[in-house]
Write a structure and sequence with these properties.
Structural class: mainly alpha
Radius of gyration: 22 Å
GO molecular function, one term: xenobiotic transmembrane transporter activity
Protein name: Protein DETOXIFICATION
Helix content: over 70%
GO cellular component, one term: membrane
Number of helices: 14
Pfam family, one: MatE
Organism: Chenopodium quinoa (Quinoa)
């Protein structure tokens, strides 16, 4: 590719591009501002409906917590454990399994292989529906499982009853997630009907789905483990109740960045499929910067309202005071949550799931979780120690992934994307021209 800077005018839209549609290297502040604006529009055009959809999906659980919190402290703790442990476990697994489509559909669409999107979606439906059958016993035996994990018996029994009632939502997610990924990759529908091709190479598809699931689950389950550890502390009802309020608020903000995660994954995979290394890189930089700004604003909002926002969830003064003490940890978590999902979205778009899964495993479960345990139980800092140690794990993971992004050779990633499309059933795209079949 010719790296000579060139301004190509498309219908009066002057911007730094080379002839194949990719950007040239940014040479000035004005060019950087132009690229920033173009990428911002592209990112939020995809992210806005995704954020709205996933926040609405999460809000069903969030609103349940709000209503139940005013019934009593036991009810709030029980429903929070059910949602945060049982439902989040399944949610994370299915979302992760479905995230394989972000890599394949996004790159296939970018490469002009639109016909493959429907095949990928059908394969994912089959895999996720079978996964739901495997996950069902966790819902059915939620109460004894929670007791086995050391949770309060009254809390576990009530949480188990609630978990059984939520089984239908499990199967709805198996259809919902792949369909979302299929649509978001192209911002329209390219459905060509059911096909037996969905069963072709399904085991290889399972392997990519599992890699995606492991990567995302290690992130989502990490925060879930805070609730389990907190359940072993003295005065478990208040401890779990206050933590659940913080996690609920954190979850609402996290859903915004799950939408950003999906949007940046689409941008990265599309641009890789189109063989645009600089557009890929610039879209990543813009997404990370904007996410950090949003995270900082959320932290400020939480710290300003630290003595008041818990009133939405509970009438208990004791719970409100406990939440206020945890607010600064919530604020720090929100900043980290703004960057980390976006980087994971880049990983999904680029097909780096296995690499990120290994980083998550080391930072979260080898470093962060043991540190949280030591601070919480050995150093006797309680829930603040548990949460603080686990935040340290997230900080380490974020720094490592930022370093990986900084060292990434995007031209090489484009070449690997081309190989991936040939492997997964697309035609040879080495001669594909930008705009063909799109």
């Amino acid at each position: 590719m010719d790296d000579t800077p060139l301004l190509v005018n498309r219908g009066g839209d002057e911007r730094p591009e080379v002839e194949n549609g990719d950007y040239t290297a940014v040479q000035s502040i004005s060019e950087a501002a132009t690229v920033f604006w173009i990428e911002t529009v592209k990112l939020w055009k995809i992210a806005t409906p995704l954020v709205f959809n996933i926040v609405c999906l999460y809000a069903t659980n969030s609103l349940t917590n709000i209503f139940v919190g005013h019934l009593g402290e036991l009810e709030l703790s029980a429903i929070s454990i059910s949602v945060s442990v049982i439902n989040t476990f399944a949610f994370g697994f299915l979302l992760g399994m479905g995230s394989a489509l972000e890599t394949l559909c996004g790159q296939a669409f970018g490469a002009g292989q639109v016909h493959m999107l429907g095949v990928y979606m059908q394969r994912s439906w089959i895999i996720l529906l079978l996964s739901c059958l495997v996950l069902m016993p966790i819902y059915i035996f939620a109460a004894p499982l929670l007791k086995l994990l050391g949770q309060d018996h009254d809390v576990a029994n009530l949480a188990g009853k609630f978990a059984i009632l939520t089984i239908p939502s499990l199967f709805s997610l198996a259809i919902n997630f792949p369909t979302q990924k299929f649509l978001q990759a192209q911002s329209k529908d390219a459905w060509t009907g059911f096909t037996w091709a969905a069963f072709k190479d399904i085991w290889a598809f399972v392997r990519l789905s599992v890699a995606s699931a492991v990567m995302l689950c290690l992130e989502i389950w990490y925060m879930m483990s805070i609730m389990l550890l907190a359940g072993h502390l003295p005065n478990a009802v208040i401890t779990v109740g206050s933590l659940s309020i913080c996690m609920n608020v954190n979850g609402l903000q996290f859903m915004i960045f799950i939408g950003m995660n999906a949007a940046v994954s689409v941008r990265v995979s599309n641009e890789l499929g189109l063989q645009h290394p600089r557009a890929t890189k610039y879209s990543v930089y813009v997404a990370v910067f904007q996410s950090l700004i949003i995270g900082l604003l959320c932290m400020v909002l939480i710290l300003v309202t630290r003595d008041y926002f818990s009133i939405i969830y509970t009438d208990s003064k004791e719970l409100q005071q406990a939440v206020s003490k945890l607010a600064w940890l919530l604020g720090v978590t929100m900043v980290l949550n703004s960057i980390q999902p976006v980087i994971s979205g880049v990983a999904v778009g680029g097909g780096w799931q296995a690499t990120v899964a290994n980083v998550n495993l080391a930072c979260y479960y080898v470093f962060g979780l043991p540190l949280g345990y030591l601070l919480g139980y050995v150093a006797d800092f309680g829930v603040m120690g548990i949460w603080g140690g686990m935040i340290a794990g997230t900080v380490l993971q974020t720094l490592i992934l930022l370093f990986i992004l900084y060292r990434t050779n995007w031209t090489k990633e484009v070449e690997e994307s081309s190989s991936r499309m040939q492997k997964w059933g697309g035609q040879d795209i080495s001669t594909h021209k930008v705009g063909d079949d799109i």
